[in-house]
Design a protein that fits this description.
The chain has 248 residues and is α/β, with parallel strands linked by helices. Helix content is 42%, strand content 21%. Helix 3 runs parallel beside helix 6. The structure holds adenosine-5'-diphosphate and magnesium ion (MG).
């Protein structure tokens, strides 16, 4: 994104923000509460339009495209709050997400033609693979409400991956997780990069950010105050002052 700003009435949530995420790269976006992290994710995913500035996706200016037109281009996101189908099994949740992404004419679906059945079979295998990939193989048959909140967060990632994105945006994926769960999440994020995806992760938990990110951008009052490798960010005086300083 290039020189992007977003105002909500009198509040400048994001000010002249520019940064990039490349394939095979995990970028962290950190900053104190209210610094504009979620707004940045909303701008990139198309949930809100920018007040000014442009958002580019693989050389295409997508600033004016709504979220529904960015998903097919390869952008996917998870939300800060859990958003799963109730009374559905883990496998069906991912299967449904796979299903909505493939196009079959309504008639072949209704008539259950051979090709529609074959396609459904492929989506089922794909859903099973994704559930395993996310480390949820053991709970594939349980309902989404019966699994732990950490597992629900992994499931949201598996659901986002069903759209076969090239970029995945994760808004506070480690919220409420204990150390062991954060480790599983970190491993999953690294596996996602291995698949060649770009990952943008917003997170409060510094340990996770420092462990998985190739690069970190730091926001304060909607502006980028630093950007660099984890070890550079840890030493950056402005960051310590604005962010880490408040923690100690
Ligand atoms: P973060 O995710 O870093 O905590 P946000 O991006 O949610 O920060 O918020 C940045 C600023 O923008 C805050 O001052 C917040 O109150 C404001 N803000 C975010 N979304 C809206 C909205 N939909 N309407 C009005 N103000 C908003
Ligand atoms: Mg937020």
């Amino acid at each position: 994104m290039n020189q992007v700003s977003k105002n909500f009435g009198g509040v400048q949530a994001v000010k002249n923000l520019s940064f990039e995420v490349s394939s095979h790269e995990i970028v962290g976006l950190i900053g104190p509460n209210g610094s504009g992290k979620s707004t940045s994710v909303n701008l990139i995913s198309g949930a809100v339009p920018p007040t000014s500035g442009d958002i580019f996706w693989r050389d295409q200016n997508v600033s004016k495209l709504p979220i529904s037109q960015r998903v097919p281009l390869g952008m996917a996101r998870t939300f800060q709050t859990t958003s799963l189908l109730a009374e559905t099994t883990v496998l069906d949740q991912v299967f449904t997400a796979c299903h909505t992404c493939y196009e079959v004419s309504p008639w072949s679906s209704i008539l259950r033609t051979k090709s529609a059945r074959a396609q459904e079979e492929r989506q089922y295998v794909k859903a099973q693979d994704l559930v395993e990939f996310a480390g949820l193989g053991d709970v594939a048959g349980q309902t989404t409400s019966a699994i732990s909140s950490a597992q629900q967060r992994l499931l949201m990632i598996a659901t986002a991956l069903a759209a076969q994105p090239r970029l995945i945006l994760l808004d506070e994926p480690a919220a409420g997780m204990v150390a062991k769960e954060r480790k599983e999440l970190a491993d999953l994020i690294l596996r996602i990069r291995q698949r060649g995806l770009a990952v943008l992760v917003i997170e409060h938990h510094m340990g996770l950010i420092m462990e998985v990110c190739d690069r970190i951008a730091v926001l304060n009052f909607g502006q980028k105050i630093a950007e660099g490798r984890p070890e550079e960010i840890q030493k950056n005086a402005a960051v310590i002052e604005a962010y880490l300083g408040g923690v100690h």
